[in-house]
Amino acid sequence: MKQQIQKNLNQPQEASWKQYAKLTVGSTSIWALLRHEVITGLLINFPGAMGLWLRRKLYPSLFAECGRGLIIGRNVTLRGTRNIHLGDNVAIDDGAVLDARGDEATISLGDRALVSRNSIIRSRNGTVNIGEACDIGANCILATDSSLEVGAKGLIAAFSYIIAGGNHLYQDPDTPITDQGFQSRGGVKIEEDVWLGSHCAVMDGVTIGKGAVIGAHSMVNKDLASLAVAWGSPATQKKQRGD
């Protein structure tokens, strides 16, 4: 897979507004694009309680699916909105990004999920599923071009990085790395009730079992069992919850 984003933004045979519409709303519907531009243009930075109320009332029409009680802060960036599904009482804090690019891209946030300030959830023709009551801390990045799943009631502390696919190939020293495409090891699955400490990195191909706890500043590059308590770089199990 080559750098698909650059390709999508540089197609001389396609009108520039259509390229922009694909990026922004996930389709070439002029009406969907106009609706998105008007609503976000007027409300993206509207302050105070009135801004929250107006976004709650008008933003749901932008998404493929949106439950009741939506909370969206200021300066939230939305891309590929027709590929984004939100449950009830989802909260997206100031400066967050939901980016679903490509015809196969999907982002789903379950009921009562929280995306904190400045965090990024990005899918490039992949699937992101965030379970109900998940708490994603500030300044996190969750990205995939395959599959990324976080089970219900997960805790992802601030500055964590979960990368599910999109690893650059680099074997050929005579070809620039950006021209060699990507590889995927099957995505990331984090089961329910997992707690990732601050500044954790979870690499592609990893499964973390239910109820596991990962210490701060850990790098997880292999599977961890349910109820494991692990830390380090790479993270290794030190003990078991309940022992």
Task: Describe this protein with a few key phrases.
25 strands, 7-stranded parallel beta sheet, globular, 243 residues, 4 helices, UDP N-Acetylglucosamine Acyltransferase, domain 1, 9-stranded mixed beta sheet, 16% helix, alpha/beta
Task: Kindly describe this structure.
The chain has 243 residues and is an alpha/beta fold. It has one domain (14-240): UDP N-Acetylglucosamine Acyltransferase, domain 1 (3 Solenoid). The protein has helices spanning 4-9, 16-24, 30-43, 48-58; strands at residues 65-66, 71-72, 77-79, 84-86, 91-92, 97-101, 106-109, 114-115, 120-124, 127-130, 135-136, 141-144, 147-150, 155-156, 161-164, 167-168, 182-183, 188-190, 195-196, 201-202, 207-208, 213-214, 219-220, 228-232, 235-240. The strands form four sheets. Strands 2-5-8-11-14-19-22-24-25 form a nine-stranded mixed β-sheet. A hairpin with a 2-residue loop joins strand 24 and strand 25 (235-240). It is globular and about 55 Å long. The N and C termini lie far apart (45 Å). The model has no long low-confidence stretch (mean pLDDT 92).
